[in-house]
Amino acid sequence: MIARRILLLSPLLPLAAPSAALAQSAAAEVVERFHAALIAVMRDAQRLGVRGRYDRLAPVMGQAFDLAAMTRISVGPPWTGFSQPEQAALTEAFTRWSIATYAARFDGFSGESFTTTGTQVQPNGDALVRTTLNRTGGQEPVLLSYLLRGNPPRIVDIYLTGTISELASRRAEFTTLIREGGAERVTRELQARTARLLGG
Questions:
Q1: What is the pLDDT along the chain (200 residues), one digit of tens a residue?
Q2: Handedness of CA 79, 145, 103, 153 (dihedral sign)
Q3: 133 lies in a domain?
Q4: In the chain, how many domains are there?
Q5: 6 part of a folded domain
Q6: What sign for the dihedral angle of Cα 48, 52, 55, 60?
Q7: Domain residue limits at 100
Q8: Residue among 127, 145, 157, 116 at smallest CA distance from 26
Q9: Residues forming beta bridges with residue 131, ordered by sequence position
Q10: Which of 127, 156, 133, 165 shows the shortest CA–CA distance to 38?
Q11: Cα-flanking dihedrals φ and ψ of residue 147, to 5°?
Q12: What is the CATH classification number for the domain harbouring 159?
């Protein structure tokens, strides 16, 4: 169900201060609430259909993810050269595409569950929440790590064991699109992908 592969961060130093413990707890709660909502959508996936899943996930992901920051990070340095209307249109297109990707990907339930295995706070205040997606039928668990930033913390990247980050993958792709036609080219591409994912 999860297609992208992403690289885990380097080992982080454990922090014992109370503020670090609070940050760990808050970050883990964000991820666990998102996972609970995702499992609920998966359980009801067939009845909802892809558009129903999109509608259910939109407010959940809007709370759990900093999709505006994820758009900026995915674009990289060219972002500052885009006009404000271009930035707004691209952020909206990126947001819709991200939600549609989850709505299309998590299209059924076969007893899956998520387990939080640990949380670490980096020196810059970011938190890394490590989890596993437990699959059935003898399939190996999928290791997922969420990078959260801000106060309150929100997800800004996702990592899958052994490869590269979600946003690093997107940046490489967006760089080519920007070269072809700037912000408008990326926006059009994301809008087209969203339409295909949602079946229209």
A1: 443 333 333 333 343 344 666 778 899 999 999 999 999 999 999 999 999 999 999 999 999 999 999 999 999 999 999 999 999 999 999 999 999 999 999 999 999 999 999 999 989 999 999 999 999 988 999 999 999 999 999 999 999 874 569 999 999 999 999 999 999 999 999 999 999 999 95
A2: negative
A3: yes
A4: 1
A5: no
A6: positive
A7: 18-197
A8: 127
A9: 116, 144
A10: 133
A11: -95, 125
A12: 3.10.450.710
Strand ranges (E), the chain: 113-121, 127-134, 142-149, 154-160
Helices 45-64, 84-105: crossing angle, 10 deg rounding: 140
CA gap 173, 63 in Å, rounded: 26
Specify if 11 maps to a domain. no
Residues 6+ apart with CB under 8 A from 140: none
Residue 28 domain flag: yes
> Is 0.85 surpassed by the pTM of this model?
yes
